[in-house]
Amino acid sequence: MNRYQFEDLISDYLENSLSLTKRKEFELYLSKNPGAADLVNQVRNNMLEIKSVKQVKTSADFMDQLMDKIQADKSVISKPVLEQRTLFGFTPVYASLMTGLAVALVFVGSQFFTPVVPGATPGFNTIAEKKAPVLSNPDPQAQMFRTDLAAAEKDSVDIDKESESDRDYSGKIRYVKD
Predict the structure, then answer these.
(1) What is the pTM of this model?
(2) How does DSSP classify residue 128?
(3) What is the per-residue DSSP string for 153-167?
(4) Do residues 10 and 41 lie in contact, with contact meaning Cβ atoms separated by under 8 Å?
(5) How far apart are CA 131 and CA 134, in angstroms?
(6) How confident is the model at residue 113 (pLDDT cuts 50, 70, 90)?
(7) How far apart are CA 7 and CA 13, in angstroms?
């Protein structure tokens, strides 16, 4: 006998409704497993507690009234829901939102994937195509000294990058335990 079979037979054992062979097998399992006796005692105590609970007295027509209320609640719950107009499974509000999103997707997609036709001028100017504004300095010599920053050979931001690696920090570094 395994534990599951034992647990199935506990109430039959307590009610003394087991056959003689099953009863001997049950008691053999009970003697071999000390935890099984605790389980039988717990079930016995539960059965005694349930028997000691006072019974509730009801009126003679209690069950009839209960069944009437259950039937009334079933009829209220099972009312069919009115059908709504749908367009491909969408309500009108969601169908219009979905249509707007589809149109927006097509518009944005067409903006990303417009073919470039040689010789045609685009309908919009980009920042790179715009010419630089002319300053109000009519002096031709002042315009001669202006240079294009993109054409500069040395970047003004790179300050002594080569000389940083050549610096000697041996006299300036102090360790914690020196």
Answers:
(1) 0.34
(2) G
(3) SS-SS--SHHHHHT-
(4) no
(5) 9
(6) confident
(7) 10
